[in-house]
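Section 3.1: Structural characterization of target chains.
Under the original work plan, the team committed to producing a structural model for every single-chain target entering the pipeline before any wet-lab resources were allocated. The record below documents one such target. The sequence was received from the expression subgroup and is listed exactly as submitted; it comprises 409 residues.
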Amino acid sequence: MRSVFVRFCIMQGAFWSFQAVFPGYLAAYLMANGFSASVWGILQALNLLFCLLGSLFWGAWIDRHQASRRFYLLSNAAVGLLGILIYLSSGMPLLTFFLYPLFGLMNGPIATTLDAWVIATFPENPDAGPQSRSYATLCYAIVMLLSGQLISAFGYYIMPIGLCLFLCISIFTAVLQPEIHPEMETISTSRELNAHASMRRKIQELFGHREYVLLALAMLFIAMCNAPINNMKVVVFRNVGGDIRYLGWDSFIGCMCQLPFLTFSRQLRRFRAESRLLLGILASIIYAGLISLARTPNMVIVATIMANVNFGLLFPAMREITENSTPHALRNSAHSVIDVAYGSLAGMISCVWSGYVIDNFGTASMARIAMCIGLVSLGFAFLIAQRAPKQIGHIKGRIPAPVRIVSRH
């Protein structure tokens, strides 16, 4: 089954390479075509609203039909088509405002689906998800760096070329992956799925677990600390004298600092997930504080290192806490809700005000507000740590035998 894991790593790398070359530079491309920071903020808020709706809808659909591969193939093809149309519509703002939210509807749930697919395939190895995601981080870092240099040298047409290349690799690899057969789930899981057939009962079941609710709130507020800075990073660099080349170096250096945390997630499991959660949130607060003090592009890059330390600690921890605090049958829905809180919802709320604050009061004011929001998340993380059992996580094997799976080519 190592070949299955290797294909998952290729899919992670290809999908996040696409995220680097297209969504990663979309803000710069649209601003080069006349969009202001405020208008981009509103557009991004709409995109993230549809990411939220898509994550909730598609997460429940995948749980009901056990259709990770089917959704992955459909969504990759859809975002490829929509991405090309968005690139071509940059001179027509109304059309862009129609297409970009649809892009979010299909693009938002993909990363969660892929992560949950890996976890479901290797249920006895909690490190399989972070280990496969480390390839995503590596590819994202390299492609962000190369894309910035290529776009600076040759122009933005690099974006659709990269989109087609990486999505084709992602789709062709996914076709070879086996789907988890619904009949191969345990009897108890089947009963859980039947018992939670309605969306309303699923939501009630998920939010009946207090630790899970606290995690969702912690993720929401720490993402509201990160999102204003990340979504406006092009403007942040512009305000301190940087250009698009710095954006590539910023992502590359930051991701390379994140990579060891994901690669050695198995070793880090010696420490409680709740402790890693606290440290990750502290790193985000420091990130916002450094951005508020930044006066040169290099200072922004130094601050970004802390943002990637944040994700390197938070990602495995939030996946682990989610798996331990929710029913197995609601796995995709549970991860989708956390990702909605951490990504779509927080980003949507932040984008509404961050562009206005930057345009009228500057980057430092936006970063100070973000830092205060991060302190709220820290409070929720302390509550999670107090409620958690006082035990040290044990290390499990590298890649054990997965659940029984059948190919549906």
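The mean pLDDT is 82.
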